[in-house]
Amino acid sequence: MAAPAEAGPVTHSVARTELPASRREPAGRKSQQRVKEILQAGRDVFSEKGYERATTAEIAQRLGISEATVFSYFRGKRELCARVIGDWYDEIIEAIESGLPRDGSVRQQFAFIVRMHLRLMLVNGTDLCALVLSEGRARHHELSEALTELQRRYTAPLMRVLAQGQETGQIRTDMPLRLLRSMVFGPMEHVLWDATLARRQTDIEATAAQLIEVLWAALQPPDAALSALQQFRHDVAEANRRLAQAEAAQKA
């Protein structure tokens, strides 16, 4: 997804997305199961029909319950849809946070985030991804406020990696993090648009590999190539010097 407003300080812990409290907190096991069923039916209906055409009446009908029962747990369609999307984001964030190779290099962590972003959005969540892109992202849409906070937390792992890269000199420092984040998520969002809304066939792994190469090159410091060449020349000169010393020692 495209980058939201600047994220604040983040930690490595995975906290559940904060969403408005539902009408009735499910206390018993039966109520908790009912909420789970409503959320699953809601995910199916919102995925199939989008936000505008989906109705709580159809969600209730699929479960064989009354619409009033749905309203006893959720105040309305907006709250229910926000919870459905929130749970989906939580699944994705958990997968990224738990799988991120924290002992790996900055590039390895960056590559993991890009690859997992595309996999998780396009393998199991294509229709929900289309919902967020086409309706939930519109300005002043009923879901826009809830999605802004979700996406802020969703982009936090990338922000940490970018910040680490800047600190170690592996990522350019002439641009603020929020713009670097947009440089990464912007191209990925175009891929998601093509795959979900235009319904174009996408080779996820090949596309991810190409994006990683292009985006990583764009994130490099402006003088990265020159520095690499200078380092190479230094290494060659040092190797030649040591070879000459070894030859001289053999002749002595």
**In angstroms, what separates the terminal alpha carbons?**
67 Å
Radius of gyration: 24 Å
How much of the residues is beta strand, in percent?
A: under 5%
Estimate the helix proportion, in percent: over 70%
Number of domain modules: 2
CATH topology of the largest domain: Tetracycline Repressor, domain 2
User: Tell me, what is the CATH class of the largest domain?
Assistant: Mainly Alpha
Low-confidence residue ranges:
2-21
CATH architecture of the largest domain: Orthogonal Bundle
> Which homologous superfamily in CATH is the superfamily of the largest domain?
Tetracycline Repressor, domain 2
Q: Which structural category fits the helices and strands?
A: mainly alpha
Task: Describe the structure in brief.
With 252 residues, the chain is mostly helical. The chain has helices spanning 29-53, 56-63, 67-73, 77-99, 106-122, 126-136, 144-154, 156-167, 177-196, 204-219, 224-251.
Structure description:
It is a single chain. With 252 residues, the chain is an all-alpha fold. The chain has 2 domains: 29-221, Tetracycline Repressor, domain 2, CATH 1.10.357; 224-252. It contains 11 helices and no strands. Helix 5 packs antiparallel against helix 10 (204-219). The protein starts with 28 loop residues before the first helix and ends with a helix. Mean pLDDT is 83; it is low at 2-21.
